[in-house]
Structure formats: structure tokens, C-alpha cells
What we know:
The protein is an alpha+beta fold. The chain has seven helices and ten strands.
Amino acid sequence: MRPDRASTAAAPDLHEWVSFVLDDVTWLFDVTFLASNWSCAWSRDCPGVRTEPAPELREGCCSYGAHFTGTDDRERVGRQAERLPAELWQHRPDDVADAFTVDGSAPVTRLVDDACIFLNRPGFEGGAGCALHLGAVAAGQSPIAWKPDVCWQLPLRLEERRDDNDHLTRVLRQWDRRDWGAGGGDFHWWCTETDLAFGGQLPVYEALRDEIVELVGEHPYRHLVEHLQARPASQLVAHPATVPSR
């Protein structure tokens, strides 16, 4: 899916959505993002999420560490971290428990030199990037099983809503700057906002298949794919970040 699809200038941030009901749950999908060619720009001069561009640091969105979604998330990552040798983890502490701390009441990864302790820096012999990701690949496993939830889910966001009649709606959309809370306003750049990250060879729903299925399940995912594959690419709304007139 390339960004030369038909579009409209009716709104500055126009997205197309599709919904359907399965097993008494309404699913709502941001097909503009899911059909786009977004791809993580970490290895393509990503400027990072500091207050100023810093592509040379190759930190991506790891500058502030990972906030865990809960105890289960924290304990799962802790178990996998125990398996990581120093050859794959540049900043491995003597006691792996020291890789974690608490921010307020929320468990988070510690920072080393102003970035996540799991982030291997450029030039590290074991490989730059997330040590947990590298460990999963070395073990022949999915990074989903090793990384904090927020890290493998980005830039996807699943939300749940219940109406007054207790009907459940699940929404899968792109992760926006506002989803970081007040701190997101300090980012000089966020990857769903500009065309720098829209250079992938596959649409998001194919490239991030495993992540989407982990979030929504196989059945809803198949319905989404059937819908998207039945529509000509030229009829899909182009992602606003790829529209030159934006």
C-alpha cells in the first residue's frame, strides 16, 4: 500500500474506520493507519522522542524507559531478562532486579545514561537496539514474549469502551502523541505524524500481523484482512502524514 492512494483535503487529519460485530463485541479499526506503509524508523535516522532531534543516539522511543502495564508485565520481562547474557545486554547489572524501579506507583525500567537500561548503544558488539528483542531473536522466539507490552505494541493502541447497556467496543488505532499524556507534548517528533516513518514495503496490517493478532485475536483479524483485501488500494484514504498538502 503506497501513499499515492486517492485522498481528500476535507479534514487535516482524516482517517477512515471500519467496524463490525463479532460474538457481541463491536470492533472498530483505524484502516487508514492499518493500510498505510508505516514502518519503524529506528534504523532509518529516527530523530527520537527527546525535545530536540538526536538521530545519532539511535534511541527511538526508548529515551524514557518502559512503563509496565502491571505486575504480570513486569514479572514476565524480569524472567526473560534473567536469560540475557552480557554479550547481548550492554548494561546488564549484576542483579537483574536492579534493572527495574518504580515511578510513583508504576513499575518502570531504569535509565542508564538517559535511556532505557535495555537499550544497547551504537557500536556495542552484541548489537545495537533493544537487548530483549535481540535475546528473543537469539532464542528463536517472538519479541512479543520478551518485551514490555508498551514496547511491542507501539505504534498500535487497543482501547476498550462499554456503553450504558454494558456493550463492549474494542478500538484498534494508531498510537498518537496525546496517548503519552502531558509528556507527549514535549516530543519534538512522533512517528505517526510525519512521512519519515511511512516507508515500509508492506501495509501495517501485514507487517505487524503478529502484534495485531496478539491484541485482537485471529477471528477479528481475519475479518479485517478480508475487508481490506476486497478493496482497491486507490479507494482507501491515504494516511494524513503522507499527503503532501498537509
